[in-house]
Design brief:
This protein is mainly β. The chain has one domain. Helices cover 10% and strands 34% of the residues. The protein has 3 helices and 11 strands. Strands 1, 2, 3, 6, 7, 8, 9, 10 and 11 form a 9-stranded mixed β-sheet that branches. Strands 4-5 form a two-stranded parallel ribbon. A hairpin with a 6-residue loop joins β1 and β2. It starts with 10 loop residues before the first strand and ends with a helix.
Length: 184
């Protein structure tokens, strides 16, 4: 998977699960210093309730495997110092919660994963260039202790760190999937 990281990327968030069906993952931040990639932080996290897929569809409860850019952020809380463009909207984020699947503070902070979304728009923009069946609205967001509909969760300390460190000038990307497919 490292071969698919764009040459211009200077920051990579790697999210991996032990196997294809696991909702448990590890989130690791790597930053390029010269020609060397340094692991600078890591956190426990969660991904789709039913694991990972290379053919994600709306409501399949699996996170897409791949390399995706990270360009936009937002949340229901004020900007904690994000370097990515940050949209705060206390009304848009809570209204998106599905009571049986979301938790009160899931969307306090989010970083949009550029999977089937337009770049340069708020994370809660529902335009889907590849159509609604391919899903979308996949974010890094606050952890609630278990699997998600397709997003990746990170503890609050991790979300704040990522928001403050990810720099659009360094073209950050996320590499995500189960260990087996990430090694391929």
């Amino acid at each position: 998977m490292w071969k698919r990281v764009p040459a211009g990327a200077g920051q990579v968030v790697v999210v991996y699960g032990e196997d294809r069906e696991s909702p448990d993952s590890v989130v690791v931040l790597y930053q390029k210093r010269g020609t060397i990639w340094e692991r600078t932080a890591s956190w426990p996290g969660h991904n789709g309730r039913l694991g990972w897929t290379t053919d994600h569809h709306m409501d399949d409860e699996q996170s897409p495997v791949g390399v995706f850019s990270l360009t936009d952020a937002g949340g229901s809380l004020e900007d904690p110092g994000s370097r990515l463009t940050y949209w705060q909207d206390g009304n848009a984020f809570p209204s998106m919660q599905i009571p049986e699947k979301a938790h009160d503070h899931d969307f306090d902070y989010v970083i949009a994963i550029d999977y089937n979304r337009l770049k340069g728009v708020p994370p809660f923009d529902w335009n889907r260039p590849e159509g609604p069946d391919k899903g979308g609205g996949i974010w890094l967001h606050m952890d609630h202790g278990d699997g998600t509909s397709a997003c990746v969760t990170v503890p609050v300390s991790g979300m704040k760190t990522l928001l403050r460190v990810l720099d659009p000038a360094r073209h950050p990307v996320v590499v995500m999937g189960d260990r087996e497919r990430l090694r391929a």
